[in-house]
From TrEMBL:
PANTHER family: OUTER MEMBRANE CATION EFFLUX PROTEIN (PTHR30203), OUTER MEMBRANE PROTEIN-RELATED (PTHR30203:SF25). It comes from Sphingobium boeckii. Belongs to the outer membrane factor (OMF) (TC 1.B.17) family. It is a lipid-anchor. This is NodT family efflux transporter outer membrane factor (OMF) lipoprotein. It holds the Pfam family OEP. GO terms for cellular component: plasma membrane. Residues 1-25 form the signal peptide. GO terms for molecular function: efflux transmembrane transporter activity. It is found in: Cell membrane. Keywords: Lipoprotein, Membrane, Palmitate, Signal, Transmembrane, Transmembrane beta strand.
Length: 464
């Protein structure tokens, strides 16, 4: 037995540090096809503190409270947290492979004999087994489980960033709908006034009933737009309720009071494309998936080599409890096992894991490129929104002056009703367009912050 133990320890020493598979190294930026800079934007990347709570830069206390509530109560985030717990337990299970497995047993019985007195019997025993990690299969399993755990943390972070972005977007849409509803109702009041004016002019014989019918049609068209806007507004309220973990209804009642469209910050530096590898949790999660797939190649390769198992047992039996310690027996065993033939199954598993790693690399690169695409699109959207906003400010000023002149001239009989109608419709279009442009600018900022990976940098249990 001593020779077997010495031989086992010698094999362990000879194979120490010999791990199957290749050591993982994160792909270089060159392998991922990263450009040196974005076509727009640039500058120093935002600090983690700025990215972590980017929504606070809108200076909307109601929005800040909603985001904090969503972080605490959103059910998608809750599911991500549960998946993170599962991954953490998987790592505990993988690490258990390093340790011996020990089981114990105990028994008692009574023997009956017609020719002798009845006798009791007692037994106690323990068995232990330990698989030595000769070629690093267990180590690679732990490595893969650790990468899975980190990946689950980044997946949770990605869910968090997406929920925050969706919540802020719906908040902006809510305020936009409230603004559009206000504009539509004010326009309806003007349409009522115009309809009354045409009635007076018909009674005075100054115009035909055609003007009144056109005024009626214009008023009805404006009134018909209000239910559509109210539907959009209700949808935003209901979505905000669900995102914050509540049922639609009472939970968002306080938001029904109209507020202005949030004014976004515009001094946002996008940094360089390489920053996405650090800032975006989905990119970092995909990299951890690649690391786990690479480690599992080593797990599959270790199965090709011999395995060393050490087992032992100890036990005792006696006719009385007091005599259990009188005679103790046991044994220690060591053995090597090697698969000689299995139809190529083990080598096929190695090739399968290599293919999985190649697929994980392709997915990682795709995630990186998609992240760059998101940033580029957000930068373009922000520039376009600013340009549209500038033009709608001009359009509103011009259409407002035109409507005032047209109304004054129509009252004085200096212009026809068609000119007045066109001026009022142009004013409505400009006011509605300006509200949409303000909302689009705010949403473009949300899109950019989301593309840059903001919203998770200071979360509890952030993966490292």
């Amino acid at each position: 037995m001593r020779r077997q133990l010495i031989l086992s320890l010698g094999l362990i020493a000879l194979t120490a540090g010999c791990a199957a598979g290749r050591d993982y190294a994160a792909p270089a930026a060159l392998d991922l096809g990263l450009p040196e800079g974005y076509t727009r934007g640039g500058g120093e990347p935002l600090a983690d503190a700025d990215l972590a709570s980017w929504w606070t830069r809108f200076n909307e206390p109601a929005l800040d409270a909603l985001v904090q509530k969503a972080i605490a109560a959103n059910l998608d985030i809750a599911q991500g947290t549960i998946r993170l717990r599962q991954a953490r337990e998987s790592l505990v299970q993988a690490r258990a492979g390093y340790l011996p497995q020990v089981s114990g047993s105990a028994g008692t019985g009574r023997n009956f004999d017609s020719d002798a007195a009845d006798r009791n019997s007692f037994s106690v025993g323990a068995d232990a087994s330990w698989e030595v990690d000769l070629f690093g299969g267990i180590g690679r399993s732990v490595e893969a489980a650790r990468a899975d755990l980190q990946g689950a943390g980044y997946d949770l972070a990605a869910v968090r960033t997406a929920i925050i972005a969706e919540l802020v977007t719906n908040y902006i849409q809510l305020r936009q709908s409230q603004e559009r509803l206000r504009i539509a109702r004010e326009t309806l009041e003007i349409a009522d006034d115009t309809l009354q004016i045409t009635g007076w002019r018909i009674q005075a014989g100054l115009v035909s009933s055609l003007d009144q019918e056109q005024a009626r049609a214009s008023r009805a068209s404006t009134a018909a737009s209000i239910p559509t806007i109210e539907t959009t507004l209700a949808g935003s309220l209901n979505r905000i309720a669900v995102l914050t973990g509540d049922a639609p209804g009472e939970s968002t009642r306080a938001l029904e009071e109209a507020r202005d469209i949030p004014v976004p910050p515009l001094d946002i530096a996008s940094g360089i494309p390489a920053d996405t590898l650090r800032q975006r949790p989905d990119v970092r999660g995909a990299e951890r998936t690649l690391a786990a797939a690479t480690a599992r190649i080593g797990v599959a390769q270790a199965a090709l080599y011999p395995s060393l198992g050490i087992s032992g047992n100890i036990g005792t039996s006696a006719l009385s409890l007091g005599s259990l310690a009188d005679t103790i027996t046991g044994g220690l065993f060591a053995g090597l096992t090697q698969t000689l033939f299995n139809g190529g199954r083990l080598r096929s598993q190695v090739r399968s894991q290599e293919a999985a790693a190649d697929g994980a690399f392709a997915a990682y690169k795709q995630t990186v490129l998609t992240g760059l695409e998101d940033v580029e699109n957000a930068l373009v959207a922000l520039d376009a929104a600013q340009e549209r906003l500038d033009q709608f400010v001009i359009a509103l000023d011009a259409s407002n002056n035109s409507a005032i002149l047209a109304r004054s001239q129509y009252r004085a009989g200096l212009t026809d009703f068609q000119t007045l109608l066109q001026a009022e419709q142009s004013l409505l279009s400009s006011r509605d367009g300006l509200a949409s442009a303000k909302a689009a600018q705010a949403q473009a900022v949300v899109q950019l912050y989301s593309a840059l990976g903001g919203g998770w940098q200071t979360m509890d249990g952030k993966p490292e």
